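Lecture 7 notes: from sequence to structure.
We start with the chain below.
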Amino acid sequence: MRIASFNGWGLAIGAALTLLMGLFDVKSIVLAALIGALAFNEFRGLKLLRAFDLRGPRVLGWNQVALMVLIVIYAIWKLATYKSGANAYEKEIKETPELGPILEPILAMYANMMYWFYIMLIGLGILYQGGNALYYFSRHKHLQAYCDETPEWVIQLKRTTGE
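Predicted structure tokens for the same chain:
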């Protein structure tokens, strides 16, 4: 449950920051809304899990799969956008050609850093979110066994106390 809580709060904070940093940018608003929806769903799955509802692990698992897909699509989109030449250094070089010899090495370094950053984002997104999804999906059988072996009054008590 701690993982779901951590992920839910992380997504909620990420959605808020994305919205604040791109308040007048439609793409940022859409991205913030998607992240916010994932945060909402993570908290919904956590609530189901706390209620010993067997849907909880599946909701959390599929939410992680959705987040993984969003991360991969975002990173590929950013890589494709960068390849199209949307770079502040390129604009400066075009506007002030005498800065070319100074800025071109920085441009090459920037391009390399951005490329590897988004490649790592894809890899880490697949590893972390994919691992979380597998973990959540594997919890279903454990939750089922717990519900089958535990007296109903204990489960009801835990539901009311929130443990």
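Points to note: The mean pLDDT is 90. The helical segments are 2-21, 26-50, 56-83, 88-95, 100-149, 152-161.
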